[in-house]
Amino acid sequence: GLLAAGHSLNNETESNLLAGRMRTFTLRVLVCGLLAAEATATIPSDPRSVARLVGDAFFKSSAPPKKGALGVFSCPIINGRPCGMMAWGYGGALIMDGMYESAKQFGFDDWYPKLDEYLNGFIQDKESPGYYMARNQTQPYDTAVGDFKGLYPIAYLNRAIHAGKTSGGQDMDIAWLTANHYIIGWPHRLPDGTFSRTVGGDWPGEKSTPQGSFVWGDDQTMGTMLIARMAALFKDPKLAAEVTRQQIGFAERLRDPHDGLNFHGYNDADGHVSCCKWSRANGWGMLGHIEAIQSQQAYPDGYPNATANAAVATIFTQHASAAKASQAPDGRWHQLLNDSSPGSFLETSTTAMFVSAIARGIRFGALEKSKFSDTVALGWTGLVSTILPNGTVTGVCCGTGIQPSAEAYYERPTFYGCSGPGGAGAVLYAATELAKGGYL
User: What's the whole-model pTM score?
Assistant: First the structure.
């Protein structure tokens, strides 16, 4: 409830990233339009403390499915949303994945039983895809490959890995059903197999083919993150081939050769790209690139096409270079990457995704540390500046379809309650990756 109506921040002391100093903010909180409190608080900038602060805030802003008086499981309404920040969906998937990464990296063992409550609850809640997946039942496909069904099961894969039970069991059944049916079996594709949709968001004047001709930048990762990890873990060449296909197919449609950035959408029916280079669509792309490269390195036999592998590496390095060139002076990135006008606000989830992906790229040898380490350090400074004393992550754009104009992207809301489905969980990725890379 800290951000029930709004907030303003006065940055009194700028942090020094490498020295690990602390930042001090004067926080003025507005509740129902009234000034409720003013307090001075100290916010950590070291990755472990940031992950703990942000993760605990996610738990406080969420609740797992509960059994009601009639014995039926359902999600409690938290801040107007079923199950709150950690609800089943792509945003909740990022949070859950980041939680598992953080718990493993930083030893937050008390998080595991809390995560179990969500995973166990969803397989008992008939409103959740998890209920049907756990019973080996399929449902109709959604409008997008990863938005609702294709990404959240990565949490069940994480739990199976943590428990050392990847050879079978309910969690792995859910992961395999998702990989084989909802991702490999995804029916909407372009002729070369690139994932597509039949809906174009708010893109005016554009129509889809019956098969689906809209390509959304988000899908290259929402639809491949799970299978990239499973390809490497289970030495599955079918999954590996799909990962490579999507990385190349999306870059061919969305990448602007003039600046190396991606447009949010493309319509294969007429060859049009959408108006704008929305930052989080680019953030999703960067995460997808490095997931593919990590999968290649872990399972080289599954990626035998040297030309295709080199293409994925080039896609990543070009995208990372374009991201570096568009970074704002304070370390963050704008809502529209090539637009630094006042309306194109500085966006937090993109910053977290870029920091994470670039740091991982350095760690896995895909990017030169001498060229990109400053980008990571500056990005982390900007990212930490968005976190409030209670762990609330500010400045995350709500879930956003392809928009008709730059002005429409400017007007997208950023309140905390909608940042779960927006991508706030990527902050945990950035924290764990900086710790793994030894930046602090």
Answer: 0.91
